[in-house]
């Protein structure tokens, strides 16, 4: 059995093959998974361009690199919202604006998928810090959760669904 963080086992009964995944917000295989590869500017820098074509191309290039080394999936992009300047993962996130985050994240996913590499869009919502993150309670209203913190994820899903329908 392989480690669940970097692969998923095959399930013969439903025809699911073994897959290999890597983590890395700005490259394939960060966090000491691979000792080689291309490192790109982080998500915040990409978001500052507000260029969907560039985001799509970035996703495509990362997807091609993943495919060239036999990787099926990529734990990225991260469309969580910059909630505080002290956020431990802000370098992985595009913006404090859900429209920018959703738009850029969706373009990256589309580019990666066209290259044959699927994405695990992360960190679902309100992941603001790494210290004690498994026991942290984040206070917010339902309205702010819906309109700010879940909006970027919703945008990406709705965009993907509308592209499949057309």
Give an overview of the whole structure.
The chain is about 40% helix and about 5% strand. It is α/β, with parallel strands linked by helices. Strands 1-2-3-4 form a 4-stranded mixed β-sheet. Helix 3 (about 100-115) links the parallel strand 3 (about 75) and strand 4 (about 120). Helix 2 (about 50-70) packs across helix 3 and helix 3 crosses helix 5. The model has no long low-confidence stretch (mean pLDDT about 85).
What pattern of helices and strands is seen along the backbone?
A: EEHHEHEHH
Cα-atom radius of gyration: 16 Å
**Contiguous helical run count:** 5
Query: Structural class of the secondary elements?
Result: alpha/beta
State the low-pLDDT regions, or none: none
Fraction in beta strands: 5-15%
Summarize this structure as a short list of keywords or feature phrases.
7% strand, alpha/beta, 166 residues, 4-stranded mixed beta sheet
In short:
The protein has helices spanning 43-49, 52-68, 98-114, 142-149, 151-165; strands at 7-8, 19-23, 73-75, 118-119.
Helix and strand arrangement:
Blueprint lengths: L6 E2 L10 E5 L19 H7 L2 H17 L4 E3 L22 H17 L3 E2 L22 H8 L1 H15 L1
Parallel strand pairs: 2-3, 3-4
Antiparallel strand pairs: 1-2
Helix pairs in contact: 2-3, 3-5
């Amino acid at each position: 059995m392989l480690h669940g963080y970097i692969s998923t086992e095959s399930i013969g009964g439903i025809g699911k093959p073994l897959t290999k995944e890597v983590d890395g917000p700005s490259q394939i295989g960060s966090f000491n998974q691979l000792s080689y590869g291309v490192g790109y500017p982080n998500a915040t820098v990409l978001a500052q361009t507000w260029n969907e074509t560039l985001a799509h191309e970035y996703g495509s290039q990362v997807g091609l690199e993943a495919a060239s080394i036999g990787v099926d999936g990529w734990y990225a992009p991260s469309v969580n919202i910059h909630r505080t300047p002290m956020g431990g993962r802000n370098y992985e996130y595009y913006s404090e604006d859900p429209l920018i985050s959703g738009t850029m994240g969706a373009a990256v996913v589309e580019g990666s998928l066209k290259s044959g590499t699927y994405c695990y869009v992360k960190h679902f919502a309100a992941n603001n810090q790494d210290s004690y993150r498994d026991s942290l309670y984040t206070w917010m209203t339902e309205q702010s959760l819906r309109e700010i913190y879940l909006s970027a994820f919703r945008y990406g899903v709705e965009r993907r669904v509308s592209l499949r329908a057309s």
